[in-house]
Amino acid sequence: xxxxENRYEFVLLFDVENGNPNGDPDAGNxxxxxxxxxxxxxxxxxxKRKVRNFVELAKGSDQSxxxxxxxxAVLNSQIRRPYEEDPATKEALAAWxxxxxxxxxxxxxxHYEDVxxxxxxxxxxxxxxxxxxxxxxxxxxxxxxxxxxxxTAGQVRGPVQLAFARSIEPVTPLDVTITRMAVATExxxxxxxxxxxxxGRKHIIPxxxxxxxxxISAPLAAQTGFSDDDLELFWQALMxxxxxxxxxxxxxxxxxxxxxxxxxxxxxxxxAHKLFDLVTVRRATDPDAPARSFGDYAVSVDTAGLxxxxxxxxxx
Length: 316
What we know:
The protein has helices at 44-59, 75-79, 81-85, 87-101, 112-123, 125-130, 186-191, 218-224, 228-240, 272-276; strands at 8-19, 23-24, 30-31, 39-42, 131-134, 139-141, 148-150, 154-157, 160-162, 165-170, 174-180, 198-216, 252-263, 279-283, 297-301, 310-314. By secondary structure, it is an alpha+beta fold. It folds into 2 domains: 8-43 and 164-314, no CATH class; 75-157. Strands 1, 4, 9, 10, 11, 12, 13 and 16 form an 8-stranded antiparallel β-sheet that branches. Strand 6 and strand 7 form a beta hairpin. Helix 1 (44-59) crosses helix 9 and helix 4 packs antiparallel against helix 5. The radius of gyration is 24 Å and the shape is flat. It starts with 7 loop residues before the first strand and ends with a strand. The mean pLDDT is 90.
């Protein structure tokens, strides 16, 4: 499958109800906020994590949709895989070692690291989508001589990038006290003299509507092999990732609207910020009362203001 031929921008609206969409470890895991405006923040890596998790669920054992950045993954072990599993990488490495020993031989047309990078892009969805730093490989001794070689896969700039999500209006993080009726050990039970309740804290936002904006570059997709099938899977992930990410901490999170701008060519036909300005979110109810549902907002898309060469699709 060939890489995509068009540039894209997109706007994703999603909300949280009685949950913590993205805790800040520097603030006791309270929901992230902009301290100057009290607008809620959600990091790009938080959203990418949810996309990765969805792809892993959706594609299962499909070898070309493996995930490079995942919980407890040993990255250097993953980076070594093309050197262990890919004949082309092995051949490129052998040719490079031969040339290093004898510079009279023709210099290999492609560095072994680039061949390994191609294999990683082909086999790991998140590498060819978001990019990755794969230059952390460990030095190993060559079988041919005592020199040290570093088996790495370089760095990849991913065609898909997201900005931080920001809430439409200021949010109010709450620190809620909770109780636990059970204890973990007999010692805890004895120490509490018959009362097994312990106190804890839970951080939530009563309600917040967030807006995330993203970019997809066709020229960078050509470098990683990000295809139309990969793109459709990405749209599906944005629409469904919250459905498989529920937990007691995150409360109720839902994707509400996905607006996609498609350019007629690879380089694009309009600045991204002008397209983002076409999507506006305003209060549909009393602005002095706190918003508590998606129905408190009105979303409009100015289709009449679309620049020439840009088409629009609303997927939600």
